[in-house]
Amino acid sequence: MKEILTIRHLSKAFVIHNLGKKIEALDDINLDLKEGEFVGISGKSGSGKSTVFKCIYRTYEPQKGSIWYNSQEFGLVNLADVSERQMICLRKQEIGYVSQFLNIMPRTTARELVKQAVREMGGEEDWAEREARKILEHFELDKELWDCYPATFSGGEKLRLNIARAMVKRPRLLLLDEPTASLDHASKLRVRELIEQLKSAGTTMLGIFHDLEFMENICSRVYQMSEGRMS
Asked: What is d(CA 197, CA 173) in angstroms, rounded to the nearest whole number?
């Protein structure tokens, strides 16, 4: 298996100007991820786990280091300094992100959100409709909610929709940031089932979990983060 993601000497700091304080969020992070692997990251809140993901997804810009991604579209690129146009394309077509929070356009229904994700991958309208139905049914999102605005959903319903929207694309690289945080046991099992399907299909995944039991027998390996460092 060849490497799809190589992180070298990644560092990130935040400055709180009104307090004159600098917070070192990441300190010299190194990570190799091979195609088809599912690697887990665990650690206390505030240890820097989500910051790693946001640097990969480029919602944060790192101060130092490189994040080499082996892209289908552009070849080997450094996500730390790739162009905005290329990064937008990679988010639409190759790199998925599931967070605990759902950030969406306020007047977009649940069904349309999932269909939109399929269309971004080049899917036709009929196929987008079929795939949306399939994954919304898998997560047992009440059909009465499909054509409603997610602002009215409970926390668990929003999270299930967020996971459905990311997983329906079957991305090459999927970042899972606490995807089971507010889910009941049955919903967690559905997430696990889809993760196993994606693994079988060759999707590479990096996941943050506090639920260590969930990670058992599904991760290739697990890293521990503490105070911005990975071991």
From this structure: 14
Helix (H, G, I), strand (E, B) or coil at 6: strand
Number of C-beta neighbours around residue 182 at 10 A:
15
- CB contact at 8 A, 158 and 208: no
| 3-state class percentages of the chain: helix first, strand second, coil last, to nearest 5 | 35, 30, 35
- pLDDT single digits (tens) 111-139: 999 999 999 888 899 999 999 999 999 98
Per DSSP (E only), the strands in 79-162 are 95-98
* CA separation for the pair 86, 127 (Å, rounded): 26
Answer whether 0.85 is exceeded by the pTM. yes
Residue of 230, 211, 176 whose CA lies nearest to 11: 230
The mean pLDDT of 31-50, rounded to a whole number, is 93
Measured CA to CA, the distance from residue 43 to residue 225 in angstroms comes to: 5
Other C-beta atoms closer than 10 Å to the C-beta of 13 total 15
